[in-house]
Amino acid sequence: MNSIRERAGGFMVGVLVVAFGGLWALQDSGAFDAVGLGPDGRTIGEVDGEPIEGELYQRAVDQQLDAYQAQGLEVTGSLQRNIEDRVFDSLVDNALVEREMDRLGVEVTDDEVFELITGPTPDPLIAQVFPDGQGGVDRAALQQVVEDPQFAEQLQAIEEQVRRNRRQAKLSALITATTRVTPSELQSEFVRQNRRATAELVALRYADVPDDQVEVSDRDLRSYYDDHIEDFERDASYSIEYVAFDKAPTAADSARATDELQGLVQGFRQAPDPVAYARRNSFGAAVDPAFVGAGDLPAELASAVYSNLTEGRVVGPVVAGDRAYVARIQGLRDGDATAVKARHILFPAGSEDQARQVREQINSGDLSFAAAARQFSTDRSNSAQGGDLGWFGEGRMVEAFEQAAFAAPEGQVIGPVQSPFGVHLILVEDRATSEVQLVQIERPVEADFGRVLGEAEDFAAFIELEDRDFAEEAQERGIAPTPVEVQDSQAQVPGLELGRDFFRFLRRADEGQVSEPFDAGGSFIVARLVERREAGPAPFEEVRGQVETEVLTERKKEVQTAALQNALDGASSLGAIAAAAGTDVETVSDLSMVQGTIPNYGVEPRAVGAAFGLQPGQRSGVIAGDQAAFVVRTTSLTGATDGEFTADARTSIREQLLQQKRSRVLQAWLQGLRDEAEVDDFRNDLL
């Protein structure tokens, strides 16, 4: 009985996506409608003067946040803002749709609701609340809820949602009642999806024209800017600089975790039942030990364990990534796989000679491998550690590197070895086939967020109280300020996870004002508003580089189109055109109208369209594409024959087109409601 109550009651304040228009149906017992909920609570917006209540809004937002957190996902500031915006928009849409249904007199009778709950073809919600595990409805559980008075409240909530689903379905049918698919539309879509083309082409890429072969004057740039001024319109924007205080654990944070584990080492070593000891000191999280190879352990832990494989030995504390470990070796056995412990030095591609010279210095004793890695390696992930890669098993590295490493003798420098990353020297220090059985106790290595926030607060307060220069104070503290431009319409700042409070600061701050710290996900930031810019066209000097790029592209397009036209004039074949243009004829097959792409050129709808518009053997004129100028000759068109246009194909395509048309009609109808409505959003001032 309790499980039934949980399943049914869970929908009382749930957020459900209904089929109609992608709207959100926000459900609560006795208080569903977003508009006109009463005087209690803050109004966070209005739809044509009718309030959107903050209580319902916040409840819906909280449910979305809980759903993310239940999946173990981090809710960052920017994600929360996206959720808040989606919920607000959904409340607005629901209010508009509910009002339209009232105006049009769309109703659902009690008999219809009863049939949709208990009938042979129930509303999809019923299968969600009362699943039988096989895609159907658990009729016994449903009957209990229908007949048992203690479930009256839950049943009422289900009835309201079913009524709303059916009401919206009726509205959808009413709006899309005249939607039809014509025979010619069916035929065209069948051809679009199924016809394939093979073609020959001659192409001249615009990017192949050197910049110095194209003349662009300041007058040209100004003229382009004036003619395309609408392309440079921008929202109100803010120029800011910020400093970030990283939340990543420090050496002190690691020491805090290892100090805690250090106090367990002696007891762990002497414990008659190490597994029980581990469980007591891991808050029940420790699991029965399994045999693992060196390549399956965190690199730092593997190095510590395999340095001395003695049963009963306690290893650690060892920090590996965001965890600290102590481990006791319980057993050893021969394994089926080999793991190696290696170092490497990475050089840029083509640096074989340099790699050989460094190898000779190492072999002669003039330079240790670790010192050479610190001096020469371009792999910054491990060069500071002397190129140490730790232990790894097969399948962990790229093929060329792995083959060389597993074949290398221990203690001998091998290479140069080429891989997709460059040129390597490799030193295998150890290899192992044995597997070890470990009992482990872990602790997370967590940053002291209070300390990090305190540093950020201290920085912001010092700037204000001492009237210090923002950039100078940051530099004195060893922090590099980051400049960034933020549009008023932006939902986030690249690289930062900021919430609504940060953007509210930008809108309200005076130029030069320094913020309080904001949580930005992986850091706390303190920002300074450098300049506020009003909406309008960006000044020419600010977008000069963008304008120059656009004009250069246009000029190169003109050059290549003219060159191909000259090659085309008087040429009798595609080969002659290619020879005159200084290029080759290319063959492309399996072209599709759906994708509109040409291999090695990308999306080129005009050229692909020409290939399908020509008959086999016909040749196009010069086509100015997006990336190149083309001349296309179609060699074959296949597929989409009358015999393939079966009744099943017609039915499938008709349903696809009907669904697309209905969706567009509904979206256009809803957009019309939005455009005509006056929607006020007070959240930036209130929340």
Architecture overview:
The chain is α+β, with helices and mostly antiparallel strands and 687 residues long. The protein has 24 helices and 23 strands. The strands form seven sheets. Strands 8, 9, 10, 11, 12 and 13 form a six-stranded antiparallel β-sheet that branches. Strands 18-5-22-21 form a four-stranded antiparallel β-sheet, with helices on both faces. Helix 2 (54-70) crosses helix 3 and helix 4 (110-118) crosses helix 7 (152-175). The radius of gyration is 34 Å and the shape is globular.
Distance between the termini: 40 Å
3D shape: globular
Approximately what portion of the residues adopt beta-strand conformation? 15-25%
- What value does the average pLDDT take? 85
- The helix content is 40-55%
Low-confidence stretches: 1-40
Total strand segments: 23
The structural class is alpha+beta
Q: How many helices does DSSP assign?
A: 24
Indicate the radius of gyration in whole angstroms.
34 Å
Main sheet specs? 6 strands, antiparallel
Name the features.
alpha+beta, four-stranded antiparallel beta sheet, 44% helix, disordered N terminus
Concise structural overview:
The protein is α+β, with helices and mostly antiparallel strands. The protein has 24 helices and 23 strands.
Outline the fold blueprint.
Elements lengths: L1 H8 L5 E3 L6 E3 L16 E5 L2 E4 H17 L6 H28 L5 H9 L5 H6 L9 H9 L4 H24 L7 H12 L1 E10 L12 H10 L5 E2 L2 E10 L4 H12 L2 H6 L3 H7 L10 E3 L5 H8 L7 E7 L2 E25 L4 H12 L5 H8 L11 E6 L5 H9 L5 E7 L2 E23 L4 H18 L3 H7 L5 E6 L12 H9 L9 E2 L3 E11 L2 E2 L2 H29 L5 H8 L4 E7 L4 E2 L3 E2 L1 H9 L9 E2 L3 E11 L8 H30 L2 E3 L1 H4 L1
Antiparallel strand pairs: 1-2, 3-4, 3-23, 5-18, 5-22, 6-17, 7-14, 7-16, 8-13, 9-10, 10-11, 10-13, 12-13, 15-16, 19-20, 21-22
